[in-house]
Design goal:
Order of helices and strands: HH
Strand content: under 5%
Number of helices: 2
């Protein structure tokens, strides 16, 4: 028994679709990580004080720190992938 050939053996958009799905997956997981870590920081500070200023400052510091961390991590990841593809 033979398997019939696919009517579209080389889908030009299939690789692009997979790349978009990976980008979406990374975005969703990154957003989830950022939301959880900032919320944990804010809740922790709010458990210690009722003053809004320290809670706001801690939340903003967590957002900025998380953004810098994610940006540097993504840069290192892309750089290593590019270097391994060149080798």
């Amino acid at each position: 028994m033979t398997v019939p050939m696919s009517p579209h053996p080389q889908e030009p958009h299939s690789a692009n679709f997979a790349a978009r799905l990976n980008w979406l997956r990374a975005g969703v997981l990154g957003a989830n990580d950022g939301i959880v870590s900032v919320a944990a920081t804010v809740v922790g500070v709010a458990g210690v004080t009722n003053e809004p200023a320290p809670i706001l400052v801690a939340g903003m510091a967590a957002v900025v720190g998380g953004a810098i961390s994610m940006a540097l991590g993504e840069y290192v990841s892309v750089s290593s992938q590019r270097d391994s593809q060149r080798a």
